[in-house]
Amino acid sequence: FAHLAVTYRIIQEMRGETVTDWIKHFDDMANREIRERVARFEGERSSDPVSASRWSQDDFVGTYHHQGFGSLHVEPSADHLWFRIDGLSGFDGPLMRYSGLSFEYQGDRDAMAWPAIAIPTAPRGERAQIRFQPASNRIDRLRWHDWFGEAEFVRATVPGMASGKP
Description:
Elements: H1 2-15, H2 22-47, E1 62-66, E2 70-77, E3 80-85, E4 93-97, E5 102-105, E6 128-135, E7 138-146, E8 149-157
């Protein structure tokens, strides 16, 4: 947000307005967002522990679709899952499970990132979150909470099933 802080200050000075401390404003906003994210993380982790979940990690694997983002693939990778969006490889990254249906997205959220070196770490709740949603006996969709807000992806396929339906 540094570029916005500088831009807004210049605009205020050119208009002769009282100058706001935009750096403090954006720092406060980021700190508030992290506190809210960690609180949501801690709440989900304690109310829906992985150990009590009926869902295995493989239940989340598949392709999900969003009208704006396109196809998002959730793929198995050792002890975690891998997040990949077609055409946006800079956003690829590990998904680390912290509750029955929720994962922390540990991609760099930077189109210039090199995801091949992303190393999964224990989730702390400070990063973007992916929450899967079940329907009947399978995972039906996911919600991605990140800097842009929330995006809902609908499941398109399940591995081993051409139509994605049991």
